[in-house]
Specification:
Blueprint lengths: L1 H19 L17 H15 L2 H14 L32 H14 L6 H15 L19 H7 L7 H9 L5 H8 L6 E3 H9 L7 H8 L8 H4 L2 E3 L11 H7 L6 H4 L8 H9 L1 H16 L20
Antiparallel strand pairs: 1-2
Helix pairs in contact: 2-4, 2-5, 3-5, 4-5, 8-15, 9-10, 12-14, 14-15
Length: 322
């Protein structure tokens, strides 16, 4: 009897341990005892960065998104090239466009000074995306915490899992569904394009194609910031994704799509006679619904395959493995 009881206890303990590794995230209070000032320290750092450059809010949201879609929210996107790592930053969807690494590193450095080796870069990324959204008048949400940092990265996986600016609606829906996010989540998250900018090389073909499904006046306006002839300098020229309120988190993005003023192809396909037209219309009429759905979708995205328990590590510097 005693032997049987011991075996049962061993199975239970083993099961709990396995669940802890790569399991569910904890609440937003995860660091309340181990690093009580972690969240306020990160918030101060992110708020300062966004106040210096409003565009940084969009960059930090995108950085978190591009991290979570490749092997989960594990800060793998922050890792630089090394002898054993081919950085995700060099993937086609990231190269010369993802940014904000210095902001995350600054926040990490500030937290390390008060609580060395406690707060993960992956959690800082998740918190930064929320705080950056709030800093430009967007919604807030409770960020579940307890993520740990990966010791690897995958450029090839990034190129497979991250959407391209030429993605079709079916392709977008499929990529998001593979991550446990539905079409409504996808449209809500795409609404982050209500802030931020895009490079000319990503939308040139759309604004100069006479057969393109785009408002003619909008196309002519965009051509002023994007020469027809490609060159490194021209390709890098920036234009706001939302021409009307480029630095405020609002629902104007969806109004733009209805008016055929989506800057990227992957934006306009959300309102092009397909299954997501109704969601775009709903969000354009109800900013409150969009804000609530965006917050909910960000929480769901932050749940994608986190490393927890004893998996991974807590990096001391976000760009390199310990």
């Amino acid at each position: 009897m005693h032997v049987l009881l011991t075996l049962i206890l061993l199975v239970v303990v083993s099961s709990r341990t396995t669940t802890c590794i790569g399991g569910e995230l904890s609440s937003s209070k995860f660091y309340d005892e181990s690093c009580p000032k972690a969240l306020s320290t990160i918030r101060s750092s992110i708020t300062r960065a966004v106040s210096r450059e409003r565009r940084m809010a969009a960059s930090l949201i995108r950085l978190h998104f591009h991290d979570c879609f490749v092997h989960g929210c594990d800060a793998s996107i922050l890792l630089n090239d090394s002898d054993s790592i081919e950085s995700e930053q060099n993937a086609l969807q990231n190269k010369d466009s993802v940014r904000g690494f210095n902001v995350i590193e600054d926040a990490k450095s500030a937290v390390e000074k008060i609580c060395p080796g406690v707060v993960s870069c992956a959690d800082i990324l998740a918190i930064a995306a929320r705080d950056a959204t709030v800093a430009v008048s967007g919604p807030s949400w409770d960020v579940k915490l307890g993520r740990r940092d990966s010791t690897t990265a995958s450029k090839s996986r990034a190129e497979k899992d991250l959407p391209l600016f030429t993605a079709t609606l079916d392709n977008l829906i499929s990529l998001f569904e593979k991550k446990g996010l539905n079409a409504r989540d996808m449209v809500a998250l795409s609404g982050s394009h209500t802030i931020g900018q895009a490079q000319c090389g990503l939308f040139r073909s759309r604004i100069y194609d006479t057969k393109s499904d785009i408002d003619a006046n909008f196309a002519r306006t965009r051509q002023r910031r994007c020469p027809a002839v490609s060159s490194p300098k021209a390709d890098a020229m920036l234009a706001a994704l939302d021409l009307v309120t480029p630095n405020s988190f609002d629902a104007n993005y969806f109004k733009n799509l209805i008016q055929k003023k989506g800057l990227l192809e992957s934006d306009q396909v959300l309102f092009s006679g397909g299954s997501t037209d109704a969601i775009v219309t709903e969000y354009s009429k109800s900013p409150k619904t969009f804000r609530a759905d965006f917050a909910s979708a960000m929480i769901k995205m932050g749940d994608i395959q986190p490393l927890t328990g004893s998996a991974g590590q807590i990096r001391r510097i976000c760009s390199i493995v310990n």
